[in-house]
Amino acid sequence: MTIIKAEDFIQSIADAFQFISYYHPVDYIKALEAAHEREQSVIAKDAITQILVNSRMCAEQHRPVCQDTGIAVVFLKIGMDVKWQTNMSVTDMVNEGVRQAYNYSGNPLRASILADPAGGRTNTRDNTPAVIHMEVVSGNKVEVKIAAKGGGSENKSKLVMLNPNDSIVDWVLDIIPTMGAGWCPPGILGLGIGGTAEKAMLLAKEALMAPVNIHELQEHGANNTIDQLRLELYDKINALGIGAQGLGGLTTVLDVKILDYPTHAASLPVAMIPNCAATRHTHFTLDGSGLADLVPPSLENWPKITWQASTNTRRVNLDNVTKTDIQQWQAGESLLLSGKLLTGRDAAHKKIMELINQGQPLPEGLDFNGRFIYYVGPVNAVNEEAVGPAGPTTATRMDKFTDMMLEKVGIIGMVGKAERGPQTIELIKKHKAVYLIAVGGAAYLVSKAIRSARVLAFPELGMEAVYEFEVKDMPVMVAVDSIGESIHQKGPAEWKVVNL
């Protein structure tokens, strides 16, 4: 009989979530480095460079690789011969570990979990509750797999109930181009095949925690149907030309992971869940001897590359830029932003809409007219930081508010990540505005351009409050220019042709 002390289990959970917030798995880093070396698209290679540099910075400074520090996901295999030394439930112990991890003052992690999801959507302030999957197995140990799953990639999860003779490959290749860039490729694709609808989704999520090893499979060849499916999907998905951040390029997925389970004769459930550039997970086992042994990876595992703006990058002063100025910018062009930049995302946009619909003014001191808005929910600052990691959130979610923000609120530009919808592109063209992107997966690198930050409105929204950032040389790219040309349409189309 193995005795697991509550304090060891809770502390191990807390330590593990801190660990994965700043250490990418080494297998992911090596796969991303290989993608960087073979990438031929200049803008995609630049995006991968930023992700790799950001990753190393976070490993060195113990700061989150992404501002979205994820929803806590925990898989437990509990041995039947384990005895817990506690009066708490296993669920309560997990949640206490998550609470301690996300509230740790030395590296606070962003609280993103909202209670009452169909109603008031109130932030729980400590990122609990976690999503927990438990299984009782033979043995006298507790096996733990944890992941911090970002919302941008989780929102792209798909489930289909295919007919038994339908093609899984055809379905995946039809779906991938519709997912856009909000899941921050290049990343990992997890597939669950079989069981029932809920079992397939669970398989897909757990598949994401397996090692990145497609290169080994390519070398040794397939041994079974699942191996063959992985290889076929890996090649055909990358041939779509979507590329890093959806900009067009050679690598969209670094690996395709698949788990399967027996299913009903009439069914073929298939679930697909992507993992983003902020791939975060780790595994450990508790045997009663104390805390989990989490071994930090050597910094030698990161490639020795640096990032710097290209010589033809346009410098922009946000404090005096005009609508006339932005007419000169072209899709795919790199910019460095300096000056005052306002922020706002889902909840802030909703608040603004409610005020406008009620005929009320915006909060005192909040004026978007002629300004740029950055879609971001930053991590809290530590030490001398102006703000913690502050990478972009998926701009597509703000499409429903864009007409209001351009027509009634007066913004002239937006900064986020991923593509905009066709109607939003038409609105950008109509108002001769622009949409810029920062690299998703480079949150700490981006935050170094932010010199000061203050809350202007809606402080009750926590990380979704409206801030005013003072930025210096913040790297972005023109994704949609004032005539409506979109790099997310142009880039993948060009690289799909290259790959044919």
In short:
By secondary structure, this protein is an alpha/beta fold.
Task: Explain what the structure shows.
The protein is an alpha/beta fold. It has 3 domains: 1-24 and 65-149, no CATH class; 150-287, no CATH class; 314-496, Alpha-Beta Barrel (fumarase). The protein contains 15 helices and 19 strands. The protein has helices spanning 6-22, 26-38, 42-61, 90-102, 151-154, 168-175, 197-207, 214-220, 225-238, 323-326, 346-357, 399-409, 422-431, 443-447, 487-499, and strands at 2-5, 71-79, 82-85, 114-115, 122-123, 131-137, 142-149, 158-162, 187-194, 253-261, 268-275, 281-286, 314-317, 334-343, 372-374, 413-416, 434-437, 450-457, 466-480. Strands 14-15-16-17-19 form a 5-stranded mixed beta barrel. A 4-stranded mixed β-sheet has the order 6-2-7-12. The chain has a 4-stranded mixed β-sheet with strand order 8-11-9-10. Helix 11 (346-357) links the parallel strand 14 (334-343) and strand 15 (372-374). Helix 1 packs across helix 4 (90-102), helix 2 packs antiparallel against helix 3 (42-61) and helix 12 packs parallel to helix 13 (422-431). The radius of gyration is 23 Å and the shape is globular. The chain starts with a strand and ends with a helix.
Record keyword descriptors for this entry.
fumarase; 15 helices; about 500 residues; globular; 3 domains; 19 strands; single chain; four-stranded mixed sheet; alpha/beta; five-stranded mixed beta barrel
Task: Produce the secondary structure layout.
Blueprint: E1 2-5, H1 6-22, H2 26-38, H3 42-61, E2 71-79, E3 82-85, H4 90-102, E4 114-115, E5 122-123, E6 131-137, E7 142-149, H5 151-154, E8 158-162, H6 168-175, E9 187-194, H7 197-207, H8 214-220, H9 225-238, E10 253-261, E11 268-275, E12 281-286, E13 314-317, H10 323-326, E14 334-343, H11 346-357, E15 372-374, H12 399-409, E16 413-416, H13 422-431, E17 434-437, H14 443-447, E18 450-457, E19 466-480, H15 487-499
Helix pairs in contact: 1-4, 2-3, 11-12, 12-13
